[in-house]
Specification:
about 190 residues; mainly alpha; 3-stranded antiparallel β-sheet; about 60% helix; about 5% strand
Length: about 190
Amino acid sequence: MAKSDGTAASLSSTLISNKTFPSWGNIIRLLPTGTVFMFQFLNPILTSNGHCGLIGMVLTSILIGICGFSCAFACFTDSYRDGDGMVHYGITTATGLWPSPCSNSINLSKYKLRVGDFVHAFFSVMVFAVLSMLDSYTMLCFHRPFFESTQKVLLVVLPSVIGSVSCAIFMVFPNTRHGIGYHPTSPDGDIDHS
């Protein structure tokens, strides 16, 4: 009887994961790829696969903070192509893109800082926070007793809620920036900021 309970729990956990991961695949597109890769690569090392001590907790907290900052910072960057077709990156400001070394033929005033940039930064950090806190190694490291009792609820509810709210907000404030960590959306690599 105990074996069948373990099998049922394993099957339930597998079904929850099968529903959760595809939705995370859609939500994670809102984050810079390098930041997510860095977190996924370093988190198992810093958390000792979920069995971390105090130093592991501190290092993992620092990693989450750096990656969160990176998600927010990337929302304030943009890129343009110069006359030779070279891609240049810069930081958006109230007057345009900075630094702008080869911008003689490009009007950088259309790259001004917008309210939508702050909204994107906030929700990108929120999506990353949920991603990082629901990572199994992070959960085991920080919330071991809490993790076992609420695992199913968190894995099903939190990604759906944050994802739905973020997607709705991103529809109201569409992002046309192609900054650091984001690839151009068109297949030929053109960067359009209309």
